[in-house]
Amino acid sequence: MNYECLGNGEGGAHIHWHLFPRRTGDIENYGNNGKGPVWWYPREKMYSDENRPSNDALEDMKAKLLCELDKLLI
Questions:
Q1: Secondary structure of 20-71 in the HEC alphabet?
Q2: What is the C-alpha separation between 14 and 25, in angstroms, rounded?
Q3: Domain membership of residue 13 as a residue range
Q4: What b/e readout covers 21-46, taking b as 16+ CB neighbours within 10 angstroms?
Q5: Which parts of the sequence belong to the HIT domain (predicted)?
Q6: Given phi > 0 = left and psi -120 to 50 = alpha, else beta, which region is 41?
Q7: Which of 48, 57, 62, 72 could form an SS bridge with 53, CB 3.0 to 4.6 Å?
C-alpha cells in the first residue's frame, strides 16, 4: 500500500489522503526494477483506458471493500 497525505487551501483548508493498493508487478519494470511508489509509473500509462477496470470489475471491488468495512463495524 502506498499512501500520501496532502493539504489543500482552496475552498477551505483541509488534509486528505490518497491510498494506493498494490500488487506485485503493478508498475511493470519502472522505478527500481519494478519496485517503488505508484507515481514512478508513467502517468500516460497509469491513466490509459487499457488500465481502467470495467464496470463489473468496479462493482466487484466495491462489494469486497464494503464487506471488509462492515467487518470493522462489528
A1: ECCCCCCCCCCCECCECCHHHCCHHHHCCHHHCCCHHHHHHHHHHHHHHHHH
A2: 33
A3: 2-73
A4: eeeeeebeeeeeeeeeebeebeeeee
A5: 1-29
A6: beta
A7: 57
28 contacts: CB under 8 Å, gap ≥ 6: 34, 41
Q: Taking the complete model, does pTM exceed 0.85, yes or no? A: no
Judged by phi (left if over 0) then psi (alpha if -120 to 50, else beta), residue 14 lies in: beta
β-strand partners of 35 = 32
3-state secondary structure of 5: strand
- Sorted by sequence, the CB contacts under 8 Å of residue 51 that are 6+ apart come out as 45
Chain centroid to CA 23 = 11
C-alpha cell at 52: 481502467
| Residues 26 and 38 sit within 8 Å (Cβ to Cβ) | yes
Residue 39: the pLDDT is 86
